[in-house]
Amino acid sequence: MITLKFILNGKEVSITTEPHIRLLDLLRDKFDLTGTKEGCGVGECGACTVLMNGRAVNSCLALAAQVEGYEIVTIEGISNGDVLSPLQKNFLLHGAVQCGFCTPGMVLSAAALLDQTPNPTEEEIKDAIAGNLCRCTGYKQIVDAIKETAKELQVK
Amino acid sequence: MRSTTIEILFPRNLSEALSIFSDAKENLKIIAGGTDVVTGIQQESKRFIDTEVLVDINRIPEIKGIEVRKKKISVGAAETFSDILRNNLIQNELPLLWKACSSIGSVQIRNRATIAGNFVNNAPCADTVPVLLVYNATVEIESLSSKREISLQEFLQGPYKTQLNVNEIVTRINIPIPSKTFVGDFYKLGRRRAVSISRITLAVLMDMRGGIIDEIRIASGAVTPIGARLTGLEKFAEGKEVNDRFFKTLASKMGEEIIKITGLRWSSEYKLPVVQQMFYQLLKSIEQRSL
């Protein structure tokens, strides 16, 4: 067993765990943060995307022990309590959520993009979410929601 | 998920890592981005069934960073593809490497996966291998008692086999900066544009002078058992006059060369014409940009 310290959704946390479980399992099973989904489990679908020091990563490809000292943000850390983030609000407004399984990963990939590239082109948006598969909503609404959010954040 | 636990070590510098490797056995594996190792463990792949110790090399400063050393660009083994893509030196001096890195996986994969991780397991489909081969890249390898630098071609021994011993680690990849007269391109064919295992990769670097091919370097990946330079083809092309007919001859000769290496396969009927056509188009685009 290993004791890890890291920052999870803005709060310093400490947890004792088997070192070789995946970050995905640590988040879901030890912290009950079930917004992070497991889809393929091999880094192809992006449903398990979280932010690691601000960068989008697949939590199914990182081991729990590797997050020591890092800052992790999951979908639960994107909203401010009950107040949705601009991205979340726009996903709803543009009908970018159907079954919702890919949504947490999509929102986090989009958040990482807008953090680094506040005014992305459509190509940049598509590249940012190329690692997030959606099988029911369709990508147009998702791209629209991200575009709209970028526009809103520019005005502010 | 496996029931036996794995110990994970986090060396803080290279000498700490080298002493861990010095009495390493087959039960020890290195982990960096985890894109290969974690899925391997999770899927109980044979390659990791005996793994008891993982050494995380992400916190070793000596194997990070991109810098110029003796007219070569030296890339730290644990440098992620995202960091490589953000580097201006790579973009300006090694555009084929930049292009190959940008074609790998997705943003999430590129944020974690590392350059050495791409070739240390010598998978035939490693996207950076053909470009590193045409750039004549060398690999720096260290153990507690030795340090050596060999060409990437020598390093890659056979499918999933390399020269790396269990007590060694790849520390840096060194790439000579090619003269500006070299123009090249990289091509990748996958089932879709993102997150796909390549079916065909090609890299070509050509130095054309006065309508004559002065030097040409050609490498393939995924269609050959390991990424490899096609030296026979290179020798055939050097000194020849550049024209459309010659490019067509060269492309059809490339097909013969690949068949010689791999034998006829069920996929040859599809892959061969694609390889030949794409190689021809690469040559045409390089010719146009060389003028």
Overview of the molecule:
The complex is a heterodimer of chains A (156) and B (291). In chain A, helix 2 packs across helix 5 (139-155). Chain A has helices at 23-30, 86-93, 103-116, 122-128, 139-155, and strands at residues 2-8, 11-17, 49-52, 55-58, 71-73. Chain A has 156 residues and is an alpha+beta fold. The longest helix of chain A has 17 residues, at 139-155. Chain B has 291 residues and is an alpha+beta fold. Chain B folds into 3 domains: 7-56, Uridine Diphospho-n-acetylenolpyruvylglucosamine Reductase, domain 2 (2-Layer Sandwich); 63-176, Uridine Diphospho-n-acetylenolpyruvylglucosamine Reductase, domain 3 (2-Layer Sandwich), CATH 3.30.465.10; 184-290, CO dehydrogenase flavoprotein, C-terminal domain (Enolase-like, domain 1). Chain B is globular. Chain A binds chain B through residues 2, 18-22, 25, 41-44, 46, 49, 52, 55-58, 60-63, 65-66, 68, 109, 112-113, 127-128, 130-132, and chain B through 1-2, 5-8, 10, 31, 33-35, 38-39, 41-43, 54, 56, 58, 82, 105-109, 111-112, 193-195.
Topology of helices and strands:
The complex is a heterodimer of chains A (156) and B (291).
Chain A: E1 2-8, E2 11-17, H1 23-30, E3 49-52, E4 55-58, E5 71-73, H2 86-93, H3 103-116, H4 122-128, H5 139-155
Parallel strand pairs in A: 1-5
Antiparallel strand pairs in A: 1-2, 3-4, 3-5
Helix pairs in contact in A: 2-5
Chain B: E1 7-9, H1 14-22, E2 28-31, H2 37-42, E3 53-56, E4 66-69, E5 72-76, H3 81-85, H4 88-93, H5 95-102, H6 107-112, H7 115-119, H8 128-134, E6 138-142, E7 147-151, H9 152-155, E8 156-158, E9 161-162, E10 169-176, E11 182-189, E12 200-209, E13 212-221, E14 228-229, H10 231-237, H11 244-262, H12 268-290
Parallel strand pairs in B: 1-3, 2-3
Antiparallel strand pairs in B: 4-5, 5-10, 6-7, 6-10, 8-9, 11-12, 12-13, 13-14
Helix pairs in contact in B: 10-11, 11-12
